[in-house]
Amino acid sequence: MKTIYDVRQLLKRFGTVIYVGDRLADLELMEDEIKELYQSQCIDTKEYQMALLLLREEASRLRDEKGLNG
Q1: Pfam families recorded for this chain (predicted)?
Q2: What letter would DSSP give residue 1?
Q3: What digits encode the pLDDT tens for the residues 4-63?
């Protein structure tokens, strides 16, 4: 898993498609779904950690672009 697309594909495997039209909101919802899948033991620790890393890095980058990180 190397990109947000890969995270989307992982979620899609479990029937989850997230698109609300706001990239930052999409990333936050995807993070919530990844956490749920991990807590339900549907994905392993490595997938969970990599997905969270990718989602948080992208969210941070977007916040920096919009000037929302303080």
Answers
A1: YqgQ-like (PF06014)
A2: -
A3: 999 999 999 999 999 999 999 999 999 999 999 999 999 999 999 999 999 999 999 999
